[in-house]
Specification:
about 625 residues; Rossmann fold; 6-stranded parallel beta sheet; 28 helices; about 50% helix; binds FE(4)-NI(1)-S(5) CLUSTER with Oxygen; binds iron/sulfur cluster
Amino acid sequence: MSVKDKTVDPAAQQMLQKVQADGVETVWDRLQEQQPQCGFGTLGICCRNCLQGPCRINPFGKPDRGVCGADAHTIVARNLLRNLAGGTAAHVDHAYDAVEALYAIAEGNAGYQIKDEGKLQAIATRLGLETEGRDTGELAKAVAQKALETFTNHTDDTMGWLKAWAPRERLDTWRELGVLPRNADREIREAMHQTTMGVDADPVNLLLACVKQGLVDGFAGLKLATDIQDVIFGTPKPIQSETNLGVLKADHVNVIVHGHVPLLSEKVVEWCNKLEDEAREAGAAGINVAGICCTGNEVLMRQGVPQATNFLGQELALATGAVDLMVVDVQCIMPSLANVAQCYHGEIVSTMPIAKIPGAEHVPFSFEEADRQAEKIVRKAIKSFKKRDKNKVQIPDEKVSIVAGFSMEAIVEALSKVNADDPLKPLVDSIKDGAILGAVATVGCNNAKATQDLNHVTMVKELIASDVLVVATGCSAYALGKAGLLHPDATAKYAGEGLKKVLTAVGEAAGLGGPLPPVLHMGSCVDNSRIGDLLVALADYLGVSVKDLPVAASAPEPQHEKALSIGTWAVAMGILTHVGLPPAVLGSDVVAGTLTGEKIESLLGGRFYVETDPKAAADGIIKHIKAKRRALGI
Ligand code: BF8
Ligand code: SF4
């Protein structure tokens, strides 16, 4: 495979040449070594759920059942539900950490403060809590307690965080289908139980359980994590920064934060600023901190910390020879980082009890001791800088200016500069009169099976040229940033005439002296909840349901189980959800057909749409948006 088939990112291309010369193995080499990948696994028709297995189904004949009698449909649906439970567990555990931190802050036991009291008040009001006469600490404790009920509700009542924010029409739809979750932990446990040997064999019942997992993910994972993180660290506002490996600095101590949970990365950023003098004493010009994956998105959105690279570039960041220390928390961290680090001087530091890597050093993180630990980690980075081998350093000269920080609140704020009394009106009017055709959220990962960033960039260029407004999160936002699409200059270059007009009018009214970028960076993967909030607000304004809006979602290069659980939440919200690589469901026409078919669309309003060609996907999405417009009579 040529370097150009592996990635369209020019910095990654340069680093791939370097790792080849340095004899370092990467994710692409390992994918090659895995060829041919197992056909049964690819189709989802293998099962290891009991010790009578492993079993596999022959798609063309016998065996057509596992030892227990489970057929392809049961096995595929069970495997999918287990995937979703995995993705959901990751987001929910992340949210739980944030809630625990808020509780500790309220009790005065954590090294953090509440940065957004306004959001705390707004959440408390929405939850029906008394806000009058309560100080910030008391209110934070009350909100944290309500949040904890997401995990401690032992009645059949619906999970509170979902009930407080889901639109009535959705609640009714989900109730009718029997998929309303009660308690996040209980539903994840139930999914594991349901998929053990000899429990559920009905693919339709298993798919309904999948929808329930999607709702747990959306409300007890994404929404809960974003809400609480905004309270603690502040709600993002538009902010300028830079992206790609060129943000690393040869004369600085370079620290990379990688993973997902901002509790740690926020503190590391703080201590990088505090220990600048020590770095200078060690011979560096200062300390430079940059992000990878979603924790990078979190500190970008709130503090403008530059982005190093997205998921597939993580090993290549180390190959610059200029990363002195990479501190990781949880999720999307390749175990191979420790091996790559051995070839250069950079240190890998793991921090979470559930995420240790052989070959990495472990500095346990806790929010009570966060400052002390972050200080220790940054001091390690300074020490590591002194060991840097200058002959091995090669930083690609690739960095691109970006604007990020578009929370729902920030978007409404910008729109209010056009119409202070009725902020959503200019956006809705532009959609109605066709200047904006519709909106698409591109989200999710890179996947070594697809050329890095190619699907994201190709699809989004097509969409914005057709006057579709794009919002992005996760590794998609990185891909689009590296391609220049998160910068206002891209509006003139790539946006269709109608979209250009609206983005320019809003950008100028908001005092940006030019247009908004054609792609609005809304944050990390848990921040997909911001997109949900925006869609609910737009639907409310128009007096319709989210499922009626001319919108779609897309994960053009999905890899993680989390991408599947987010996608299922989006479908449950009523949104057409494109995936650029098929999940392992093609071994059952019942499962694959249901997920992508008319039946699920008639029940939920949304469905999955699988298309591996990014241009065809953009066309398919535009067709869908036009059909939704016609149905609305606009
Ligand atoms: O949570 S997009 S590769 S980093 S899973 Fe992972 Fe996928 Fe990137 Fe963020 Ni989201
Ligand atoms: Fe085989 Fe059934 Fe056991 Fe799965 S649960 S491994 S299909 S016997």
